[in-house]
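Example 3.
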Amino acid sequence: MLLVLISQHLLPVPAIIFVKYQVKNMNLQLPVYLDNNATTPCDPRVVDAMVPYFTQQFGNAASRNHPFGWAAEEAVDYAREQVAQLINADPKEIIFTSGATEGDNLGIKGVFEMYASKGNHIITMNIEHKAVLDTCKHLEKQGAEVTYLDVKPSGLIDLAELEAAIKPTTILIAIMYANNEIGVIQPIREISAIAKKHGVLLFSDAVQAVGKIPVDVKADGIDIMAFTGHKMYGPKGVGALYVRRKNPRVKVTAQMDGGGHERGMRSGTLNVPGIVGFGKACELARLEMDKDAAHTSRLRDKLEQALLKIEEAYVNGDPAHRLPHVSNISFKYVEGEGLLMGFNKNIALSSGSACTSASLEPSYVLKALGLGDDLAHSSLRFGLSRFTTEEQIDYTIEQITNTVLKLREMSPLWEMYKEGIDLNTIEWAHH
Amino acid sequence: MAYSEKVIDHYQNPKNVGTLDKAKKNVGTGLVGAPECGDVMRLQIEVDDVTGTITDAKFKTFGCGSAIASSSLATEWLKGKTIDQALTVDNMEFVEELNLPPVKIHCSVLAEDAIKAAINDYRVKNGMEALQFEDSVVH
């Protein structure tokens, strides 16, 4: 069916050409994908679950009066249970969204509007995703007061500073579960204990954590939480906002007006195939999380240990509090984008270098850890998945090691370092 | 963003990577950029005292592919030119030759600055005044 659809497609579809590659008797398919913090491939089991909901069970879940609507509603209800189960929530606490950016907006703006009579102060931190930071900036223009906490060099929040920042007007603490660039996991339970003690709601952007590590909204004490399908082998364009219904009952003001779907908190016809796929992805994550985490952390550790054998290579973020599939490494004296160019036809990765962006500013997350701009420019982010293979990791180790060594031969900074020159004593011509 | 073939070729097979002896009087060294900005270029020229011709040029660059390609190309262009000819090299020539997109124009500016800095270093070492250049506008 899909093949027929594609062959009838009138526009040329850009395609990635996968090539079989023979290295030291290993079978390897290139390019290797290690950018799973950006997005993951859909698990084929997820796609299989979704397909009938495009052409056969295509009904609108809000159509109450015929079998097409009933089938869609039933599918959505089932998915809602699958999603809720993954995070130990009640299905009624799940609001389907278009993804985590919408969830961040709805969660934070929705609380700000709903609890305006209680106060206007929000506490967040400076390594949050832009979807949280920019939402807070937007609210500042609407009269919110926002405290952006610094993090420690480990990437972890300082709990004492958090507690000290709370005022009588504080209505919300917005702290991510785990960071997208460095994978550092925040002490969510300690944070929620502080929030509870002061009667403040806790919002968490848990996009990178849900499906990768156990997230339990009850035990963790989270009141509102945004997450999404496409970071956990589900489809793009569908996510969920968890909104607590008991102890305390939380409400958020809708940010889109319309038919009153999702208990009035998120109007808009439900993306039934997407929701079905998201549900399936949550179920698979719940059942296979331990296996996935063991697999990715073993390969991640292998990759990291091999790359740290390169001189002047450093891990960014606290390795003891980290997602199992993430590593962020700076290779001093080589620039990240130049480094990527050595292999990016064959290995898909991200860099904290900003050479690709117009601003020329390196990663604000790495800078917030206290890294100098030079180290921030020299970083690579690795995100592994349940589909990553040992051969791919071996190939990646070899390619990155070779490219770092080659670029250092070309680097004036490396030459100076080797000659014992302190780069801080040089008067650079800033431009 | 895809790189042009010429940038890729210079990146994969950079021309004239290396170091000339800074102590020599007829070697001029230009070091421009800053580690915090994500690119540092060091360009060196060796000049024939009699003819004023650049007989050798070497570079080392910390930076992205476009920065590496710009400096590699600069060394190629400089060899065989006189100092006066070298001073006429304009950053837009790098942009055209390497097909640099707008976000990479600063790499070409850096290459032009590196050439001028190397020439000035050579001039000062040899008892001449450093030339004054207008500040680059594109930074």
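The radius of gyration of chain B is 14 Å. Chain B has one domain: 5-125.
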